[in-house]
């Protein structure tokens, strides 16, 4: 199982200069990939721009969006941007996408929140055409793995028919995650797809002193504060010890997941070393 670490692009007030340093240190310590979380109406850094900085600062590190809220973006512009990152980075890019659950993000860009799933379906078709060279949008065809986040029937349909797999949410409900992963695998076979779908999971973490752990919990409470019950679940589930991190790796590895992404809840560079010492 591949192990990646998130860039702290989603932490409120984080400095843009931290992205390159974070990515370089992650590559030095042996993480397989870095990933970003996407959000518009929040004082954080843009997901795709941060990932682009990471691409330029490294040479072999995988680049993952987990997840990119594509209905917020102009489809032709986004297709071109993603193809450009994939081309410049040497095909290191994997895209996890979803629709999200924050109406304020959609209101800000004038997209109907209730129709975001239909927008996503249209985008998939248009982006696939662009990446395959069927339009003049991109400079050359690119191959970009495309995974879908969520737990709806639509997620299974997208992951197994037009996508390359599924991205699990950050809460470590192993039995539920396993059941949904099996449904994706079964849907993949039923659709007559060759090989196996990619299955990713993600978790939140903050390692160190009591003050650091509390700062991580405070971040999650703010970030998911638009849904207080869901915020509490994330706060309670946050990994805060090396042993807990190792247990999580064992759990997802035993379930046959292909990649596990650790999203930092604090932006201190030492989080990379603390996590690497625990799980690599």
Automatic annotation (TrEMBL):
GO terms for biological process: alkanesulfonate catabolic process. Gene3D superfamilies: Luciferase-like domain. GO terms for molecular function: alkanesulfonate monooxygenase activity. Keywords: Flavoprotein, FMN, Monooxygenase, Oxidoreductase. The keyword Flavoprotein applies. InterPro entries: Luciferase-like_dom, Luciferase-like_sf, SsuD_RutA_monooxygenase. Residues 1-235 form the Luciferase-like domain. This is LLM class flavin-dependent oxidoreductase. It comes from Mycolicibacterium sphagni.
